[in-house]
Amino acid sequence: MRARDGATLMFGIALVGSQAMMMAPLLPEVSAGLKTTITSVGTALGAYGASTALAALAAGLWLDRVQRRIALAGSAAVLALAMALCSAAPSVWVLGLGQALAGIGAGSLLPAGYAFVAEASDSDVRSRNLSRVLQGWSLSLIVGIPVGAVLGDLLGWRGVYALLAAAFLCAVIAYRRLPEVGRAQDSAKGALRAVLADRAVLGLFVCCLGYMTAFYGMYTYLGDQARLQFGYGPQFPGLLALSYGVGFMLGGGTARLVERLGAIRALLIASAVIAATYGILPSAFVSAAALLLWMGFLGVVNHLGLNGLISALTDASGPRRGTVLALNTGVTYIGYLAGAAGMGQLYGAFGYEAVAYGAAVCMAVGFVAVSALVLPLRGPAPVPR
Question: In sequence order, what are the residues at sequence separation of 6 or more whose Cβ sits closer than 8 angstroms to the Cβ of residue 330?
């Protein structure tokens, strides 16, 4: 895969991550501009997660029937339209519609991007190329959130959405210039049936569900617990996100480890370490510095785990990569919704310590699923001598 193609894909992921995160610091301004409550705005923004999950599941029926660059360009165009709609929204209902439309675009852009990396890369460098593209998530955390806050002061929240619309239009042009990779499949329904009949792929989906439920459940309520524990203002959760983003970026150095160990073995190691990391989370609240270091370490091992998970899925899916990765993106956002809702019940009833242990259990379930369903059928790749 050419370096400029990797940069294009990384830029697209950074945009997807940024548009989902930039509004959090601007919620008071958005609610004032639309003359509604912050809770109503938060609900409207929540339409993005549900829509992304549904759109990704639906994309499993068609994503392998079109060229990757066409799917990417079309998804970016939908996102550009969604951002323009959010920018011009006269009410919170229209804002919610724009967010739902953005979810449709993101639900197909992400799996199409990952599939492009797999098909444009030789097998011996696939994990490294994927790791570079995944750095787009780091950029959205490290750059997207603070830049969104600054641009919000300069341009207002409508101006931020307008700027994002322009950025996605630029992405449409860049995606159209990507080379054609892979080939379109004829039978979407046949591919879907084959995927759902593959126990190894289903095991990886279970792992993904546990992985994402654990992370988003932990992360959703981390900022509130940290502010209660240490008495800091709203800036501290931003520092936690920054620390995680830096760690995730440093985790790019684990790509060669995935190649050496094999994707499945790397995923199992990462799952075990992450489960233990969640288990010791209550101890990290001993100080703000310890919690920041904990978040940085989680970012490193999460990069290893995510690289291993996507690499294992691309290795297992063969010509059905688009279908598999689309379904996996749907599972990811189902995990997002399950984590936010389910862990919220634990948080309200038993406190944040229960959230941390619940996250550890979710990761353990993922580890067991890979060990029981994937290893017997696929097995780890041999470690080169």
Answer: 53, 54, 55, 56, 57, 59, 60, 107
Q: CA separation (Å) from 336 to 50, 305, 355, 383?
A: 9, 17, 14, 34
For the chain, the structural domain boundaries read 3-184, 191-374
Do 3-184 and 191-374 have matching folds? yes
Q: Is the model's pTM score more than 0.90?
A: no
Each residue's pLDDT expressed in tens, for the chain with a length of 385 residues? 788 888 999 999 999 988 877 776 677 788 888 888 777 777 777 788 889 889 988 888 888 888 889 999 999 999 999 999 999 999 989 999 999 999 999 999 999 998 898 888 887 788 888 888 988 888 887 877 777 777 877 888 899 999 999 999 999 999 999 998 865 555 555 667 777 788 888 999 999 999 999 998 898 888 888 888 888 876 787 788 889 989 999 998 888 888 888 899 999 999 999 999 999 999 999 999 999 999 999 999 999 999 999 999 888 766 678 888 889 999 998 988 888 778 888 888 899 999 999 999 999 999 999 998 887 766 555 444 3
DSSP-derived secondary structure for 249-274: HHGGGGHHHHHHH-HHHHHHHHHHHH
Q: What does DSSP assign to residue 120?
A: H
- CB-CB contact of 197 with 316 (8 Å): no
The token duo for 91 is: 């009410």
Give the type of residue at 53.
A
CA atoms within 13 A on the CB side of 284: 23
Classified as helix, coil or strand, 181 is: coil
Asked if residue 258 lies in contact with residue 383, where contact means CB atoms within 8 angstroms, the answer is no
CA distance 201 to 207: 10
Give dist(CA 152, CA 346) in Å, integer. Answer: 34
User: What's the CA gap between 88 and 300, in Å, rounded?
Assistant: 39
Helices and strands in the chain: count of H runs, count of E runs: 16, 0
Domain covering 191-374, topology: Growth Hormone; Chain: A; (1.20.1250)
Architecture of domain 3-184: Up-down Bundle (1.20)
